[in-house]
Fold this sequence. Notes:
This protein is α+β, with helices and mostly antiparallel strands. It is 28% helix and 20% strand.
Amino acid sequence: MEKIASFTIDHVKLQPGVYVSRRDTIGAESVTTFDLRMTSPNEEPVMNTAEVHTIEHLGATFLRNHPEYGSKTIYFGPMGCRTGFYLLLAGDYGSRDIVPLMVQMYEFIRDYRGEVPGASPKDCGNCLDMNLPMANYLAKRYLENVLYGIGDDRLIYPD
């Protein structure tokens, strides 16, 4: 069986960043999948499910309500390895194109206080597995260590 593209990335060299994972065409429409890598694979501890779940709820809420990207957002959700998130947008984008959007989204997550959207038994299948303070912290860390002043080495997958 052929190895899928995301398993061909050298995860030993991969650092936190914003990467184009793949581009697909569905009919006449382009879809860009982004790898929003928040932790260094196999070097740092992975994120716990509670903060990943909280970031997912807040990030999806932010993106779906964004005036420009709301209608272009196909999916935002966690990687199984818990080192980051995937974002699928309708359109053909480069990594640098979405850095301002990611800064806005992670600032929203960093600064969010109150009830997490969709975190109720009626709205979510695991509403008790949430950790807003840790999600705030991880968003702040990603902003300060990666997004603010991001260079090309964090926008293009390593060879």
